[in-house]
Amino acid sequence: MIDLHAHILPGVDDGARTWDEALDILRKMWADGVTAVAATPHVRGDYPTTAETMERLVEELRRRAADEGVATDVLRGGEIAVSELGRLGEDELRRFGLGGNPSALLVEFPYHGWPLALEDVVARLVRGGTTPVLAHPERSPEVQAAPERLRPVVETGALIQLTAASLEGRLGRAPRNAGLALLERSLAHLVASDAHSPQLREPGLSGVADAVDDRRLADWLVHAVPAALVAGSPLPERPDARPKRRRVRFFRA
């Protein structure tokens, strides 16, 4: 499995605080079957991470992981706020390319409010040769109320990334139902952990198969599509089967 969203670089945002914590996250990922993870620090007003900082910390984490015998590969990336897309230069954005692919970019979908001119932003990125991957829209009340609102954005060229904890019910009923609704409408393309610590949105993706009740679809979401994005290859065809709604279980955060 390949996880294309995790906050594992210490000291740059609200994710891992220390190198030990970052390595602990990687160990949990490896034990769960995650072979590669993209380090995607926040890039926004409160966490103005630069591409240079991200690259330096990724190389340091790779070195420390190798020294500790942790085999999960650490890839480059960043979670870019919509408001930052117009401020950052083209070279900087390409250096934040998701999984090291300069033609893919993880864009943070806000938790509240609909991003202004979202379709125009997506269209501009696509015209420039970049595939935008929208992170965790199922956690937005606007998407929860109207999942179909994302269809024009997807048809313009965006991919939708869901959070594993949403599908598993650990974030509550509304994100789970919205995530399943997006899958049922073929409006979601991959799943990531969005891990922030060994405890917060627990690292790992193996629970996705049970969450969507379809192992072929789960493999597409956590392996086939992420692998294609990292390689810069066309997306593999989506399996025909659709997820079945299951009884929601609630978990304490």
List keywords for this structure.
TIM Barrel, alpha/beta, disordered C terminus, 10 helices, seven-stranded mixed β-sheet, single chain, three-stranded parallel β-sheet
Percentage beta strand: 15-25%
Strand and helix order = EHEEEHEEHEHEHHEHHEHH
CATH topology: TIM Barrel
Low-confidence stretches: 243-253
Tell me, briefly, the overall form.
Answer: globular
Please give the alpha-carbon distance between the first and last residues. Answer: 24 Å
Question: Could you characterize what this model shows?
Answer:
This protein is of the alpha/beta class and 253 residues long. The protein has one domain (2-231): Metal-dependent hydrolases (TIM Barrel). The chain is 38% helix and 15% strand. The chain has ten helices and ten strands. The chain has helices spanning 19-32, 51-67, 90-95, 118-127, 141-145, 151-156, 164-167, 173-184, 208-212, 215-231; strands at 2-6, 36-39, 42-44, 47-48, 73-75, 79-81, 104-108, 131-135, 159-163, 190-192. The strands form two sheets. It has a seven-stranded mixed beta sheet. Strands 1-2-5 form a three-stranded parallel beta sheet. Helix 3 (90-95) links the parallel strand 6 (79-81) and strand 7. The longest helix has 17 residues, at 51-67. It is globular. The two termini are 24 Å apart. The model is unreliable at 243-253 (pLDDT under 50).
